[in-house]
Amino acid sequence: MDDVADSVKSGRHLAAHAPTGIGKTAGVLTPALEYALDNGKTVFFLTPKHTQHIIVVDTLRKVHKKYGVNINAVDIIGKQWMCPHGVKDLSSREFNEFCRSKKKDETCDYYNNTKKTKLSENAREVIAEIRREPVHNEAVKKMCSAKNLCPYEVCIEAGKTANVIVCDYFHLFSPQVRKAFLTKLDKKIEDSIIIVDEAHNLPERVRSLLSSKLTDYMLNRAGKEASSLGSRQLVEDYKNLTKVLKKLCKGMTGRERFVSREEFMEEVKEAVKLSYLELVDEVEGLGEEVLKIPGRFRSYSKSVANFLDTWKGDNVGYARILQKEDNKITVSYNCLDPSLSSRDVFDNAHSCILMSGTLIPLHMYSNLLGLDEARTAEKAYKSPFPRENRLLLLVPSLTTKYNMRSEFMYQKYAKHLRDVISSVPGNIAVFYPAYSILESISRMTGETGKEVIVEKQAMKKEDRGQLYNRLLHARGNGGAVLMAVQAGSFSEGMDYPENLLDAVVIVGLPLERPDLETDALIDYYDFKFERGWDYGYIYPAMNRALQAAGRCIRSETDRGAIILMEERFRWANYRKCFPTDFEFTVTETPAKYLEKFWKKSATSGN
After folding, report:
1. Are 525 and 475 in contact (CB under 8 A)?
2. Global pTM exceeds 0.90
3. In this predicted model, what pLDDT tens digit does every residue of 32-72 receive, in sequence order?
4. CATH class name, domain 387-604
5. Does domain 1-71+163-210+338-381 fall into CATH 3.40.50.300?
């Protein structure tokens, strides 16, 4: 709290690695809000999780109730997820085009009921309710639903006088969205205190926001749009663009290759009668017509036009890649450098606080995001939780290194897992680097004496919820083994409160053979920072492993064990990614330590 107070007072930034469960939300919000209220600033709390939105709003409500402080807060999730139309299956770009078209043509009743010419009386009533005390976004949607209003527009109007705005990364880190968002709110980036939650996710999210792709499937669907509207020329153009993708694939020895901006544009120029810019305009125009059709929420032509326009962009900081897999062709324009957008935010904001339980190494995130070194403090805070509540073990003879993968190695893993699982009294989660390795090792593990719960690839949210409920039920019934992957929903997106997990096992590192995008990242970071292999490959994999390891100890009362089954965790370059208080015992007999740990726990009554 002192470091945050110093940062916002002096107009500096703070990059903070701080353990999960210590109360980061309240600890950061309190000094930031205090300064904002006294100095006419706006606090933007950015988080990718809807559950975190709830925590922030609840924290603000408690402050409001306890101290009587007049906090005007607005909770804004993505416009698409607030929209009363059934549009959740659209991509973000498709939705934005749909929304813009509906407003332009004055065919959205929700928008018209809110502010067709001026703010309606019903909208004013809901806004007054929002300003009375902090409320969750779900509550706002219910209020608006009762009066057929647009929840997003209502929140924007309420946000014009807000002290705190809770929103997503893309609201400020997507250049186009940022400009429109701040303009509609009547806010300036210079008067903003920006809190970035789960900041380890920010570089990849920003890169994704600045990337674009085109597939043969998109062209096929766009061709059907052109046909339905009687545009014979564009039907032919879309067919010719598909032929361009196929032509570019000829002679490929692998499933992907780099393609230059000029190579693609020259092929397009030869294939269609129009110039490249004329083609973009024609495709854009057709997309507009498609969105005017009643009941049409998506236009593939708009998506094609967006890609063709984006493709004209810079080469530096981007990779252009052609992929062919399972008869699907994709050409992508991938951003490698998140600072192309994030630097503008950090350079112009009054103060920024970046926080995460796995923001290590701190200097890597500062470098990748373009934080000004002279203006940024980097702090790693040690866990205040009792050390005796956590057992850290490392089994050194195991690895999922590519050239060491074999049935013999997987059998060794299986034996250790059987011993470990039988030594843990309750629930245990085992996180693997890939689904293929999960299947191979779990098949050899055999009977464990516990219910086995397995994450499957491409699981739906409802299916994951069912697995989670099985884990809850198993806690008082001998426990279960959750088999899941690192960098998956169970290892990062899921919380395990009230000591739901007694132990977590990390099987190997999620380091697969680099694809072309990873190769491009390594080369670019080598050019820019001389740390290509670390920043582009090793450290991101370590972060995913640490995220999974962090599922066990979530509060000062939790007690559990973390077992690392990977010899590379002992290597110096990999150790740099561990928190300084992450000290493990190296052993080939982890079951012995686990039995002793849980026996001591039972004796002490914890």
Report:
1. no
2. yes
3. 999 999 999 999 999 988 888 999 999 999 988 888 888 99
4. alpha beta
5. yes
